[in-house]
Amino acid sequence: MTKTIAVAGKGGVGKTTATALFIRYLVEQGARAVLAVDADPSSNLHMLLGVPLEGTVGDTREEMLQEVQASLVQGGAAMGLAAGMTKADYLDYHIRTLISEGDHVDLIAMGRPEGPGCYCAVNHNLREVIDAVGGAYQYVVIDNEAGLEHLSRRTTRDVDAMFIVSDPTPRGLITAERVVELRDEVAVNIKNTWLVLNRVVGAIPDSLLARIEKIGVPLLGDIPYDEALIALEMEGGTIMDLPLDAPSYQAVAAMAGRALKGG
Ligand SMILES: Nc1ncnc2c1ncn2[C@@H]1O[C@H](COP(=O)(O)OP(=O)(O)OP(=O)(O)O)[C@@H](O)[C@H]1O
Ligand SMILES: [Mg+2]
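Above: inputs. Below: predicted complex with adenosine-5'-triphosphate.
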């Protein structure tokens, strides 16, 4: 059974970093097949994972649809649509070709939607993508965009664990609260939700702890502010280059162990 993990939160709080750290943990645990889904239109997770990015679903979707339309008009011949191949099969096939294979993890990036004002297509595709390819993986880990479009449009599949990342500030927590509200409003089945505080320096003030309590989602733990991450980013290194004793990795490994226990 595939386990789906989603990472959400306000812009800039460290979603991509946390996603990469969770993936490093899975790799260190010997996970056989991990698919990273970059659902942020600015697509940069691949850099932190050290996986080449050849194309995005958003970049190719319009092109694909036009090809399919043209092909269907001509009875499938122009595109070499095999007899009996449906449009859905054809889209699935294209989605598979967009998966970049890394040494430890595969990646697919949703990219930006084509066409002005249409944010929906790419979000709709997230569901298609995970349906089409997710089943072949032991873990699917989704780095979400800063907004909450996937949740509000019910485009995410069932999720086993959602990590809401926040910085230890009231502003970060407001977005975390909003994510929780949306989770409760929509029909997405999310088994477990946790709050993760990132870039923590020193003790969390009581006022913030009280605010966290009110959100009603358990605090899984803190990721400390970590100079090793800054150094890694400046050198253009990948998460696989981070020393295993880096405080941020140690914190995430302990949290992931707790959150994902039981398979
Ligand atoms: N625990 C940490 N310690 C030090 N630096 C960190 C930590 N977590 C994240 N950073 C740094 O903060 C910056 C923003 O992190 P990241 O890109 O992961 O945020 P994000 O939530 O994915 O942002 P966006 O909303 O733009 O996608 C990066 O430069 C990253 O290296
Ligand atoms: Mg990001």
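DSSP finds ten helices and eight strands in the chain.
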